[in-house]
Amino acid sequence: MSKAKRRVVGAGLPRTGTSSLAFALEILGYDRVLHSHCGNALSDLVCPDADALELQKQSGVSLEELTSSWDATLDSPTADFYAEMSELFPGSAVILTVRDSDQQWWASWYRTLGVFFGSDWRGRLLRLFLWMDWGSHERNDMISHFTHLWRSKYGSYGPDIHTHHNLEVQRRISPERLLVFNVKQGWEPLCRFLGEDVPLRPFPRM
After folding, report:
1. Which of 70, 111, 114, 177 is the most exposed place for a label (fewest CB within 10 A)?
2. Which Pfam family is an annotated match for this chain, by its short name (predicted)?
């Protein structure tokens, strides 16, 4: 990554356009973009909302060691550590990806991943199938922890998680370091925030 580029810390929830943002950053010249679970020790976290000390206990290395070699980190599990990472890398730019509405985010989350975490018959049935599948106990543990932690953190498990999370990020990160970004806005706000020229190619839609 060029020294002129600012490290990017993603703070957006899953299913908020983080894949499109990852591809956009690569187009802008970010060489090492860590998106979601991509083969480092963070992938082994059972508890996705663990704090930095718990992460070090589970993985044996610090959050800084796990993330310092990346130019940008997006989506869970790294986004769960956005506040700690913004302190570890004080010159970083924090990008909070958002959807148009809580309902739009929830529909996208629930039809892809969220159904596994639900308390309705579909969620319970899917978790039962995972439990019956040999070797799926770790996935069941992750689902259990995710459900418990989101409910305890946000007070519910539903569309309003989107608003609660976004407001929390905006309270914790200073405005001059934070871009609240809907990927449908395209290149202009992103490039202005990062100090980059707008590419000639269309903004990626993943």
Report:
1. 111
2. Sulfotransfer_4
